[in-house]
Specification:
The chain has 112 residues and is an alpha+beta fold. It has four helices and six strands, in the order E-E-E-H-H-E-E-H-E-H. It has a four-stranded antiparallel sheet. Strands 1-6 form a two-stranded antiparallel sheet.
């Protein structure tokens, strides 16, 4: 097993709608996607965004593109027009997600 940051094995894209942001995580290959399905859960994502996500985290699997989409409810301090936080529109949440640390079998890293 090797501890890596998510940016080493995946890409991310994020956006917002009201007081929620969404973060899409796209695995670099199918094997990594299958591993992430088991280990990148709503619970682990909520813990990673501790202090930012005040609501629930929903997860949607997109196997045809090796991606997982997360909705981070109540994560923007009211949204773009109501919030005083620096990223009230969720654009940096993808970058925050990519800092997630995960242990992954080294053999999965060979096929990147």
């Amino acid at each position: 097993m090797k501890k890596v940051r998510l940016y080493e094995i995946a890409y991310a894209r994020s956006g917002d709608k009201g007081d929620s942001s969404n973060v899409g995580v796209i695995a670099k290959n199918k094997k990594i996607y299958e591993y992430l399905k088991q280990h990148l859960t709503p619970e682990t994502v909520k813990k990673h965004f501790e202090g930012i996500v005040q609501g629930e985290v929903e997860r949607f699997l997109l196997p045809n593109i090796n991606a997982i989409n997360f909705i981070l409810h109540n994560s923007l301090g009211g949204g773009g027009t109501l919030s005083l936080i620096s990223d009230s529109q969720g654009k940096t949440h993808g970058q925050i997600m990519l800092m997630f640390e995960i242990e992954i079998p080294e053999e999965l890293l060979k096929d990147e």
